[in-house]
Amino acid sequence: FREETCSCGIFQLTGYPCCHACAEIGSKRARLDDYVVDFYKKLVYLKVYTDMIHAVPGAKDYIKSSFQPFKPPKIKKKMGRPKKLRRKGPNELQSNTSTRKGLTHTCSKCLQTGHNKGNCKNESHPKSKFFKANVAEHEEIPQGSQARPSAKSNKLQR
Q1: Where is the composition biased (Basic residues) (predicted)?
Q2: Cβ neighbours of residue 14 closer than 8 Å, sequence gap 6 or more
Q3: Nearest by Cα to 108 from 99, 100, 96, 116
Q4: Using CA of residue 93, residue 97, residue 101, residue 104, what is the dihedral sign?
């Protein structure tokens, strides 16, 4: 384990042992300090701060300029109704429902979810309210029984 690497990559990235490395070092009864990079140690810290560190000047020490100060850009109000929901990024979870409150559409013609009767290309379901209307179009009048003539056919015969 002397090469100071771990499959998680944290040990190589940070310079001090991750939990996996600590477990391995502890099982070998070695000292953790031997596996930490030198710039985390106290001696290096004291060497860095031995010299005087001067304070950063404040706003009163700034040089006065003859130019006008910058102003933020004007906010342009977009035309049209504002969007109700924000646009989700490519890494965010996209919802598949295009409905309100997370409910899905159910087609009243084929009784399947995900679309409505306006764009349904499926056959009507037997339990649908559109099933009988669909059957009545294709149903033939039985022989021997007289069907009542409609108002349109009466006008045509006159």
Answers
A1: 73-88
A2: none
A3: 116
A4: negative
Instruction: Give the pair of three-digit tokens for residue 47.
Output: 């060497």
Summarize the confidence of residues 53-71 as an average pLDDT: 86
Burial class (CB in 10 A: 0-12, 13-18, 19+), 108: middle
Average pLDDT over residues 47-57: 85
**Alpha carbon distance 148, 16 (integer Å):** 94
Cβ-based burial of 58 (10 A; exposed 0-12, middle 13-18, buried ≥19): exposed
Q: How many CB atoms lie within 10 A of CB 17?
A: 21
User: What is the pTM for the complete model shown?
Assistant: 0.32
CB-based burial, 115-150: b 16+ in 10 Å, e otherwise: beeeebeeebeeebebbeeeeeeeeeeeeeeeeeee
Q: Where are the alpha helices (DSSP H) in 4-157?
A: 10-14, 19-27, 42-48, 131-138, 151-157
pLDDT of 90-128, one tens digit each?
A: 887 766 545 556 667 788 888 888 888 888 888 888 888
